[in-house]
Amino acid sequence: MDFWTNLADQFNQAFIVGDRWILYIQGLGTTLLVTVLALFLGVILGVLVAVIRAAHDQQKLGRVNPWLSLLNGLCRVYVTVIRGTPMMVQLLIMYLVIFSSSRNQIGVAMLAFGINSGAYASEIIRGGIMAMDPGQMEAGRSLGFSYSSTMRLIIIPQVLKMILPSLGNELITLLKETSIVTVIGLRDITKVALLIQGKTYQAFMPLIAIALVYLALVMLLTWAFSGLERRLRANER
């Protein structure tokens, strides 16, 4: 009985006293907000970088566009730097160096995670574009579409359907990585658990609770992407 009594006391201290359960909900809202904003920015960056790099790689021999080569070089540097440095270091540089005079922690976190996610998403999308049948581009151009219109209306929609599982994994990774925003003081759900642990001197209940929350969110996202993937496959039949 001592075990259960102690467990009940920890639950009471972690969630009930002072209506601390509200803090978890507020922290979860911050976590989801940063994730959604970063995902939106990351997909936009990923598509732009992927299209530029794919367009460069698909140039015909002897017909190299110098401006496209320059943009491709910048994109390669961006992808290499972002993929080659830790996410925490990027977040600290963004908060303490680039935006040192700003205290908009959510905005800084969104930019840092969005830029990081964009580098990984760009490689996923570029792989999908390069795997497409070249006849798709030729068919679009033969119908009078420009390169950008063919990409936007024909290629990208098919690519997104093809790479949906990989993008789902990137979203799940992004959601879990947002827990490091605690290093800049942003009160996400992980920060809330640490603050409550510091007040109660009991780590078990708050940390187990947020672990279960993250697990539930990942399972929900996995289920949603699996259902979307099945529906897209059904539409192809």
Keywords, separated by commas or semicolons:
MetI-like fold; 10 helices; 0% strand; mainly alpha
Walk me through the structure.
- The model has no long low-confidence stretch (mean pLDDT 89).
- The chain has one domain: MetI-like (MetI-like fold, Orthogonal Bundle).
- The protein is mainly α.
- 82% of the residues lie in helices and 0% in strands.
Brief digest:
The chain has 237 residues and is an all-alpha fold. The chain has ten helices and no strands.
Tally of individual domains: 1
Model regions low in confidence, pLDDT < 50 over at least 5 residues: none
- Structural class label: mainly alpha
- The CATH class designation is Mainly Alpha
Task: Give the ordered list of helices and strands.
Answer: HHHHHHHHHH
CATH architecture label = Orthogonal Bundle
Report how far apart the termini are.
59 Å
Any idea what the radius of gyration is?
22 Å
